[in-house]
Here is the input.
Amino acid sequence: MQRLLSEEIVNPQQRKRSTLGNVCVVGGCGFLGHHIVRVLLEQFPDTRIFVLDLRTESNRNSSPQVSYHAQDITDTAKISELFQQFKLDVVIHTASPVPTLPKKLLYKVNVEGTKALLQAAQETGVKAFVYTSSASVICDPETGLINADERYPMVLGDAQSEYYTSTKGYAEIAVTEANRKTPGFFTCALRPAGIFGEGDRQNVSALVKAYRERSINFQVGDNQNLFDFTYVGNLAHAHILAATALMATHEMMPTVPLDTEKVDGEAFFITNDEPVYFWDYARASWRECGPVPPPHKVWVLPKGLAYVIATILETILGLFGKQPNLTRQRVNYLAMTRYYNITKAKTRLGYRPIVPLQEGIKRGVAHALAEEEKAAGKKG
Amino acid sequence: MPKARDVVYYLFHVQELRNIIQWKVWHNPVHERDESKETPSLKRCFHYLDMTSRSFSAVIKELNPELLVPVCLFYLILRGLDTIEDDMTIPLAEKEPLLRKFDQILEKDGWTFTGNGPNEKDRDLLVEFNVVVEEFKKVKPAYKDIIRDITKKMGDGMADYANNAEHNVNGVNTVKDYELYCHYVAGLVGEGLTRLFVEGKLANPALLERPELMESMGQFLQQVNIIRDIREDLDDGRRFWPKEIWSKHVDKFEDLFKPENEEKALNCSAEMVLTALRRADECLFYLAGLRDQSVFNFCAIPQAMAIATLELCFRNKTMFQRNIKITKGQACRLMLDSTQNLQVLCGVFKDYARRIHKQNNPRDPNFLEISIACGKIEQFIESIFPSQTPTERVVPADQQAMTPEQKAKAKKEAEEAKWDIIYMGLAVLLVLGTISGFMIFVAWMAGARFDIAFSSLTNKISATLPSPSAAGHNEL
Here is the structure.
């Protein structure tokens, strides 16, 4: 099972070509972005790649095909100028700030930044625009999602407890609405769920931290809640499939694709297509860090009780202006069912996860442990 | 008479006892065979069906009359074939041609076979096999062709295995070999039955276009039997667990049974369970293609028993020491639930998948894969019987996905709607006030004394309340 991305995928039709043209990866130094650059070069080695990012020091690819440009995406004039200069065919927009930043900034980068990129792309004759949205745009804080698909309505604004998610949703709407607004401009959005892998700063690293803090002996809820995760390499692959599909739509102009095959103007859920019980995912990651307790040694905290404890902790620690590890929001999240039906991505994009969950977890945790060791080495 | 141990067991498992009673009292067969119209040879066939099959005879006898006899004979023919293959006292030179030509034997009037060893449990069936041949002649030609074809394929498969010395000494090698073996002994039965159902117009012909579904039906049942029978098979000198799987956990097959290897043996059996479990969703898919209740029951009961047995075997060390079986009470519950409809059966599958998941151990190398397999079953069930639909989750209009501009507009509309409600409320109050006023006026005109009513009311209230001064004092 230990095959690399490049060896396995790419259907023969794509193989005929060795380039996707001039591609701009916005956020290409980020966690997801740099994987997109890597996979893109594996699948289309002659592609010319321009990476736009706020800072371009980290996650750089050494290929001569890639150039790096430090740029704030909210600067409309500058973006237009760069796009003009790059003569782009494809824009893959995957830049997004950390969800914990102030609301104003989230709105500015996610919504206004995306609109600026769309405008620049339309003005400079870009053919395909792929946006990384989030599967959480249909999540609300109370109800779970059971095998949810793209027919589910978005939950944004006041109904959405996470402001970050709202801004992702507004940006997604802007992207899909821009589709075909100017002739020959095609857009689509991908909605990944639970991205993890080498270099992630949220999912795997949080689990490794939990392992170090010995939080692995606890379980909130009955662990019957299925959850979806996406290995970053698979998601990168999905972005390239989406870009390829939009380029194909461009080529078949003026013929319009059938409704059942349409990619442009659409949103797609992307997961590893292996829904798994939430705590099993955590334990599968923990056992890559070291020994894990057997099931009978795990303290199971029923959801209701955990909720009460979280309320008390939040109130007491709140008096001192602190936040406990166990919050009500967390309790809800840990015991919630959230998994998706990705048939649309499978049929229209031809997407299949290339790296299975197990292999992805292995790679992600191994990478996080290596980073940890490096950091310890520096200190010592 | 029930055994004393059983009595004690059911005293403490009243729910299971209730299941047994419910099944005995309330189960009505969809069809019942009509013995009065049966020839003596057919009666003998049913006699042998009862004798040779514990689990299948009841469901076969309730089948739709169209397929009752063909399926019964199909079963007896395969049982006859199996009885020859199983018997180690028959020399290979004699055995092989019998197996390969069994499809022709079906046409030989009065054919019987007395060459089985005295201990072969179903030898009587072959001694009186002429009754099967006699009845087979009367079956519709289309059904006969199907039965003959499967008999030929299975006979050849069995002959190949009988010839394969490697297999006889070392058992099954790879997972592929294991699945091929299961294909010969069970997958083919699935194919034959499906063709019979479709020919009899009792199943969707599309089932024939998805052969992997009927294959999974047979594989699932056979694999579960192989997992459960590990101890019995070992004692009989047979091994069906593929080396490719057990060699990952222990060096020698016999090591699985040593107490010091308990954890390894459990992990090995979990991997066997996982291999079978991955077939479960296709089994449910297959069952969705059946059109006749009796056929559904016939197929669903064994499948329900299989998933329950799988759960019983999962991480259960006793199966390496002795034969294990689901209890009669559990079996009755499963039969009740698998003779209704697909949705109820899906509930059974989901329930057992969750029970398996609950016992899953993170120290097991296949921990995540097992979890995913259980999740897949749940997801598949959701895809055919969704418990949540997008429309159920429609968000109120003012909270739907909106850009801030749209939101401002919506807010304005909401504001207007709010005033509408206020006006409406005022209007209602006005109407109610007018009517009440009018009624009071009429009452007053008729001589009602509101002043007395009011003062008696205030007296009553002040009597029930403590005096304000005392209360004020206490507070100080």
Observations:
- Residues 31-163 of chain B form a domain with the Farnesyl Diphosphate Synthase fold (CATH 1.10.600.10).
- Chain B has a mean pLDDT of 88.
- Chain B has two domains: 31-163, 179-387.
- Chain B touches chain A through 36 residues (CB under 8 Å).
